[in-house]
Amino acid sequence: MKVLVVRFSSIGDIVLTTPVVRGLKKQLGADVHFLTKSNFHSVISANPYIDQIHLLNNENWDDLIKRLKVEKFDYIIDLHHNLRTLKLKLALGVKSFSFNKLNLQKWLLVNLKINWLPEVHIVDRYLACVKPLGVIKDDQGLDYFINTQDEVSLTSLPLAFQNGYVGIVIGAQHYTKRLPESKLVQVIEGISQPIVLLGGPTDTALAEKLIKIKPDLIFNACGKYNLNQSASLVKQAQKIITNDTGLMHIAAAFNKEIHCIWGNTTKAFGMGPYAIDTAYNYEVNGISCRPCSKIGFQKCPKGHFNCMNQQDIPTLLAQVNKKLYF
């Protein structure tokens, strides 16, 4: 059996597909191919349950279709489900199973604050796509695999961080998912243990400001490591404080203790930390405009940003500071 799994983006969404990939390989012995955008190749490059990765880049769409037709797939598992994947399925002409994105229910929650979304995690909705093939939930959580060359040795960090640290993910693709600087300062001031700041190149300037709070106890990893190296630092952290972002799902794959801060989005969308032992979710309830988007914005549509500005940092710190293993 040869199967093509399709999920074009993004980091977190691709990580959330890994139980499907694992089930297809381990339970059915399928030849598993995965189609994604080229800039997300590293997310799955080391996954041993994927036999071949196909990349959507700037090539002609017809050329991609020709390449995929040669593979003669038996099934397509469409976990992205948009117009582009519809075109793909029609072109390949093989039996497909598609993920229900529940766009109507999301629209109702965002625009009318009517919650008709099922209390089912998106991973379990992904798995429903392959249930007709005989794949069942294995309760093994998410997967994330790191190539040996991307494993970061803690001995490469300053001595203060080699016996453990709290990882804080300060970035997110959209502004309304990011904890504001003033709140990050409160978090950092309230943690007495070493802290590693995690994020991408765009988070470097903020991180450089934050390390001045505790120069000897904060390490700025933002922009210094590639995605898999950052994942290695997540893997070795004692606890992770994070916004609703891809590194949160990577932390879940390593079964870290996660403290997830929700801004304009909500875990009601079914994308909270999946199948881990300990997860804390921090949301400001009772705000009439929340959630204002299923993704996010580059500024608060209302201007007040209360979903983040009213976060209860003392409650977060009380949980984070419990049972620190240093």
Query: What is the CATH first-level class name of the largest domain?
Result: Alpha Beta
Helices and strands, in N-to-C order?
EHHEHEHEHEHHEHEHEHEHEEHH
- Per CATH, what is the topology of the largest domain? Rossmann fold
Number of domains: 2
**By helix and strand content, what is the structural category?**
alpha/beta
List the total number of helices.
Answer: 13
Radius of gyration, taken over Cα atoms and rounded to an integer in Å: 20 Å
Shape field: globular
Low-confidence stretches: none
Query: What proportion strand?
Result: 15-25%
Widest sheet, order of strands: 8-7-6-9-10-11
What is the CATH superfamily classification of the largest domain? Glycogen Phosphorylase B
Please provide the count of β strands.
11
Q: Averaged pLDDT, please? A: 96
* Largest sheet descriptor: 6 strands, parallel
The helix fraction, in percent, is 25-40%
Structural overview:
- This protein has 2 domains: 2-133, 3-Layer(aba) Sandwich (Rossmann fold), CATH 3.40.50.2000; 151-320, Glycogen Phosphorylase B (Rossmann fold, 3-Layer(aba) Sandwich).
- The chain is built from 13 helices and 11 strands.
- The protein has helices spanning 11-15, 18-28, 41-44, 61-71, 83-92, 103-112, 122-130, 181-189, 204-210, 227-236, 246-253, 306-309, 313-320, and strands at 2-6, 31-37, 52-56, 75-78, 95-98, 166-169, 195-198, 218-220, 239-243, 257-261, 279-282.
- A 6-stranded parallel sheet has the order 8-7-6-9-10-11, with helices on both faces. It has a 5-stranded parallel sheet with strand order 3-2-1-4-5.
- The model has no long low-confidence stretch (mean pLDDT 96).
